Records
---
Amino acid sequence: MRKAIILFLAPLLLFSYAPYSKIKNELRLLSKKAPSTAKVIDIGAGLVVLQIAEKGTLRPQERPAIFVAANINGDYPLATEAAVELAKKLVNEKPSILKDATFYILPVGNPHAYNYLFKTPKREFHKNATRWDDDRDGVIDEDPPEDINGDGYITTMLVKDPEGNYIHDPKDPRIVRKADPLKGEKGEYKLYTEGIDNDNDGEINEDDLGGVNIEKNFPHQWKPHTDDGGLWPASEAYTKAIIDFMFDHENIALVYSFSKFNNLLKLPPQKMGKTVEEMEVKVPKGMAGFLGLDPQKKYTIKQIVEIVKQMGIARGMEITPQMVATFFGLGPAVNINRSDLKFYEKISDEYKKFLKKNGVPTERDVKSPSDGSFEEWVYFQYGVPCFTTDIWSVPKQKKKSSGVLDKLEKMSKEEFLKLTKEEVEKMLKEMGAPSMMTAERVISAVKSGMITPKRMAEMAKKMQKPSAEGREADILAWIDKSLNGKGFIPWKKFNHPTLGEVEIGGFVPYIQTAPPLKLVEKNLEADENFALELAKKLPKLTIRKVKIQKLDKNIYMIKVWVGNEGFLPTSLMHGITNRQVPAVFVEISGGKILYGKKRNRTSKIDGFGTRKFSWVIMGKKGAKITITAFHAKSGKATRTIVLN
Amino acid sequence: MKKFLLAFVILSFTLTAGVLKFDHYYPYEEVVQAVKKLKSTYPEFVSIKVIGKSTEGRDIWLIKINNPKTGDEFSKPAMYVEGNIHGNEIQGGETCLYLADYLLSNYGKIKKVRELVDRVVFYIVPVLNVDGRYHFFHDPATPDDFRGISVKKDDDGDGLVDEDPSEDLDGDGNIVMMVKKVKGGRFVFDKEDPRILRPAKPDEIGEYQIIGDEGIDNDGDGLFNEDGYGYYDPNRSWGFNWQPPYVQMGAGKYPFDIPETRAVAEFLKTHPNIMGFQDFHNFGGWILRGPGAPNVRYHYADVKVYDYIGNIGEKILPGYKYVVSWKGLYTTYGASDDFAYGTFGIFSFTNEEWKLQQDFNGDGKVSDKERMMWNDYILNGANFVNWHKFNHPQLGEILLGGWKKFSRRLPPVFMLPELIHRNAEFVIFHASQLPDVKIDEVKVEKLKNKIFRVTATIMNEAAIPTRSSWPVTKKIGRPDYAKIEGVKVITGGILQSPFNSSQLKVQEKLPWKIWIDQVPGKGAVRVQWLVEGKGKAKITFNSQKGGKLTKEIEIK
């Protein structure tokens, strides 16, 4: 029987998802197949990034780039699948955007955790290999869980205990939940992960293997003293490799992440606290005297910035609200800057439309990126927009309306057969009929008289159990409907070496994070393709116009209009605030400058915007003058003119 | 008189008779020699080790002082001391070397020193920013140069990196100020002391403009020396309450992305016996403790211990003020002392060594004139480069002049011995308060035939607890434990009241090994077991930061 379960479940999980070594091989094969397009970059700590760019006027690292990061947490194989498929698609189809933009694709951010998908026994795992004393007893990783019943999975163990407060849900005994004393329920079980007390300290599996969750180890709003966030921000080799790669590739102008979060369907909520400009402080006495302020009064940062600017004491340096806030020790930004929010809103709208067009539902619960995550770090510290999607999640159970059954019950055979195939399909779906009951089968069964509409309704009503609620019920409903129930290991008694009789069972590991791909095809494809939509939004420098005006013999006025052909500005407001996105530089060479700077800069050029630069130069007729506009994240444009 | 003189000679001999002489500041190379000399002079107590290579590849040395006869390093509480994390703040290096030399040379002479060295391990990194110290000695500099780490940084945001450093135009080894005569400039030379450049008063016509530090405009952007060496501040790189550069100037990509502080972080991580931490900076006369920023609050019970040590520190170091960094000085994210306490619960101080002593009129401030008086009457003018004409390749005729690099932030050498001794004494006092635990008294009561009640009092005679209260509440680090071996344990726990055995907080699981959150400073924890059996038994107390000890008892 145990064997049977393994055989029964194994095919469900092991198709299509590939171990990390295979993924690396696949990327290497892609780069071999198309060496001028794809290149594997080893970014350290065993992580790899595939660079994809077609031959164009600029070198790949000079072009605006989109960094597609996947599965930083390591236990979300679906995210890796999306990244690998996107890489293949780009290399095989070579869309024209690859001439202007560079893609960097990171398929896995935590390969150590990712490889647990392919281990036996199977268990969900999201930490790295860093040794960590979870129970602080001075011994490390000494009590991990085990597959004690040998079914190939580490699941959940229920132990009858007078102090237990869990019960099997009477509506669906597969669900184990806390007893609700208000409903007169009394707890029966204690809940453990499957395993034994390896170190005989009376606790079961209290000091598991590893480690740190990389999605909690990034330095923006990192939290100290958590179970799996690490000893300090970016303490882990994976985290550092990713950050170093991004700082070494300054051309990354946008990040698209396949993660467990989603900020495209729902914008992140505003965090507690005011924006930097709105924060209020008292100005210390000495400083207040200097600025002509009242040390007893509170001023907003915005007011102080204005006063400092008026006094002209900044000596040409740009005084930002964040600088002033820093001076007063007010800490980092925690909300998306208001002037950046509009880009997030617009792209979110487009994303939803894109999903709808591709037949993917947009109404579902999603999680916003959390403190210490890669996604939050990208915007707040690296300073570029970051969009993230969780691709798919187990759908919420629809409330089964008995209305449709009542209607069916009253229908005659003739009435039923008048319905179109689509209408029957819709009805079956509303009834929550199993997937094997296709419209075609049902229609032919009614036609042949094997069943009447009335009988069908009665049977359906009988089958319909009072449904349990909550997330677990949703997952079970989905398992029943889409996987014929093969995603849950039924509770089964087992004789535990120290605890005596226990029940072992629960969800098959990775059932939600590595679903059968054919069930999520549409979602995957839409989210993969949206990467191309995002790449089209990248900023792109261009020289729109050059005007030469002869002022005198050998003296010319040169005016240049530098533009941004992309939707996104060369830098978000926060990229300027956090001083991570460099300025746009415009340089002139050839001739002697009489008026103007050789190297001009502007902190940003808006999407589809233009900035003018001018010089007066001295040069002989026929001399070549070259104007170069460049920006780390928006490419480079050059124009050479001849004086005449 | 002769007798008195002799006594004086003997006294000064006992105080300074180490193997190192502090009659000058040590360049990096000499610091390394001094480290090696300590090892060769005191081989039985000292081991030295390179804990890391700097950004430019120099060795970062650590001195370990431990008396192996009184136990290995991990069986004792330890004090970690470092100096010169800021490359130009060099006297921390001398303080650290002096501390080591003082402890070792006085081990056989002063009882208190001997007791301390027998009980506590010292880990000393005299110079952390070895590159900074190297350049500060060997390259032209202002008193403020080479503070940071030479991580390439685009300070002025022009897309170029370190392209406009300052230069020693006249080749005198100092980087001073450049001033140019210009009508309507904002500065004038003072009539009374023409060395002093000061802003023009409303009724004066300004004559001079300050250009900046000595040097040329290398990148032709009209600004002078706006993008030089670095700038990365190693004392903004520690991984507790760390913030990126837009919030905390001088920070890098992430904590410990430089080898210098990373080496120390790894050292602290692998030496859980460290319970005291001291960092030496200059200047201003401060004894600082964290938090460095207002968003963190230390545990109130630990603050009491901090205050005790800090207040004594004010007496050891006259004129120094003991303050909380962000309140007393300014906000800093990612400083070393915050990291040591926040991450590991280590009691940590940062001293800003050298309090200006030029306040001649006693108004609490040091004016330019007083600074000049000090320079004239105490140092015979040695610290100031007088204004002199220089023909600048870009600016034409300018004036060069100002304070030399070994001025302002550093005491003159004749004052160095007192400064380093007093600061070393502060460390010694802090170290003397590291947990001093004894299994004080073991009471055995016979209850019935072979059933006994054993009560062990674990006493801490020093002010610092075996674990600070911060890690207890934050659940970091391994708690202490007391265990009994040799008898069968029925039950056990911690006695909540010394007078009443019914007030026992029972530990149900594995009662032979009782987990203890902390043994408070100047306090006790009483562990009680109900045991079965007679004969010899062994009680062990084991604390990561409070030491390890055992006591044999007889149950009868």
---
Amino acid sequence: MNSKTITILNLYSNDMNIYGDSGNVLCIKRRLQWSGYEPRVIEYNQGDKFPMDVDIIIGGGGQDSGQEKIKADLIKIGPKLKKLADDGVSILMICGLYQLFGKFFKTSDGEIIEGIGLLDIETFGKSERLIGNIVTHSEQFGDIIGYENHSGQTYLGHKVQVFGRVRIGAGNNTSDISEGARYKNVIGSYMHGSLLPKNPAVADYLIEQAVKRKYNDYIVKGLDNTYAEMARKIAAKRPR
Amino acid sequence: MPKPLVTILGKAVKKAAGLRGGGSALPGLVVEHIDPNFISHTLADLPLGVVVISGTNGKTTTTKMVVELLESQGLKVFTNRTGSNFTRGIAAALLGEINIKGELHADIAVLELDEAHAVHFVKKIIPRFSLLLNVMRDQLDRFGEIDHTTNLLRCVADATTETVVLNREDKRIASIAKSLDDDKVRFYGLDESLLPLFPSDDDLHGNGNHKKATQTADVILSKFSDSSATFIIDGKSVSTKLKLTGVYNVFNAAAALSLVRAIIGEKIDQSKLIVALSKVTPAFGRGEMIKVNGQPLELVLVKNPSGFRLGLKSFDSAGYATMIAINDNYADGRDMSWLWDVDFSSLVDDGVEQVSGVRAYDMALRLQYDEVKIRDVDTDLKSALNKFVARYSKQPMRIYCTYTAMLAIRKNLSKIAKVEVIK
């Protein structure tokens, strides 16, 4: 152990955690441990004091009731999250929090739920639910493999890049082939699975950025991706 | 089409499907297609009406318990015994039981229904009693969200004419009582000392606070050990030996007792009731024991995070060889995300000997992140099972498996041991 600490913030761990998204936190934590770093996981829930001294922020999807509970608090901490993002902090937001990191979510009844506008994306509630195995591709990460389950359809603005291009599945919406969005070291995505354990390249990217930002150097060791590679190979061939 | 004709046709399809080893629901599907009112017509005349049991976990074993408890009171009970809990499965089960005129010789029907199908079912067939067990994150790819699932169950409660039996310790289930008349509701529950053993969905996801429930419960599980339990029934303490294993099965016994008390009323013969309860064995694949080469092999069905967690909590891994088999066929749920909501750290000390199933490597990956040692991974269930049984033939074995993996394992086990194969 080189006792270099990396702090992981689990954003709204009580209410935004469905579909096994907590696997993303575990993935980052273990990979840091295995490489000899000292991960420290802290949780933030509505009403808590927001910790600015963090290196990686992870957030997941929630039920409608969960989103209802956190949305006012999220608006409050929005400026702090934006500052951290602009400072280059590694951030991963899945599904529900991905949507709320955008400009707004317009429900199918026409109600507008305001987002924090950290990502230049807009989301529209639809009656159709996009569910199933999904495979996308990115030049940087290769194939990205996971499972999507959402009724909001997201459209990207000019200030974000796509996370992956859909090969199998729906992705952000039913009209283009984009999946997820990126801004600096922020990744937003609809992909559960959990995303990071099954896509170690994405996990290691988030870790590398965080470690380099804090300690300048970055050492990886002791990471065995054998199971992940086999799991990816099989998942990519399963029916939607 | 006149009823006898539909019946004859359905029975013929059932026979034909049986001959070619087909699934249990096909004949029901055919009959439903020809006469959509087949089930309601057939069930309408039952003297004690229809009982619906629903919830995420424990439906099959609870239904089995309720049937056996009602039989102890002298009733003839119709049920969908094969665990085919869709409307079609019920139509298929009916075909096996009715005479050629389409009459069902039973006093009461006790039906296990999947949450989503229960809603459609109660629109056609109004239940007199219902029992709602719990709402957990199941195959969310099927129902969407757990609050939505709660609403599905609320529809079942609303449709019920006489008594709704509710789990007091599941706050979503308990909240259903709010929109019902007080005299229509009965609760079953747990003694406070046992609450930590039964994490609710919110407890599993960090929202838990074990607030003591205030509603009076008709039946409370107050104590239990490996082979016995104490219930408080209507304020009086009753202890009994049990053949059921697993904490969740024992809690569901409290649910079954309360439901049967509501159905039978004052005429209930409690001593016969308790004797019957002591004899109930788990439903197939729900902690049942099979002997292989003289050693016990336990099959534990896992289909969602809460069930898997409860299974790991109920069965100590020390001294056991452990296998896990995960499939992702439609009946299992396609999404593997749920494995990440299960904490496998209780397996760290003893490791996992064999991992198998279509998604064996997803499972292996999950175990890797909880730092659980794995001896072998093999996606081929048959060869994995053979290796497992050959290597660990001198110690007790336990297999955690998803639904379709369990069916395949039973089929292969039947070649080396005495196993009841469910078609």
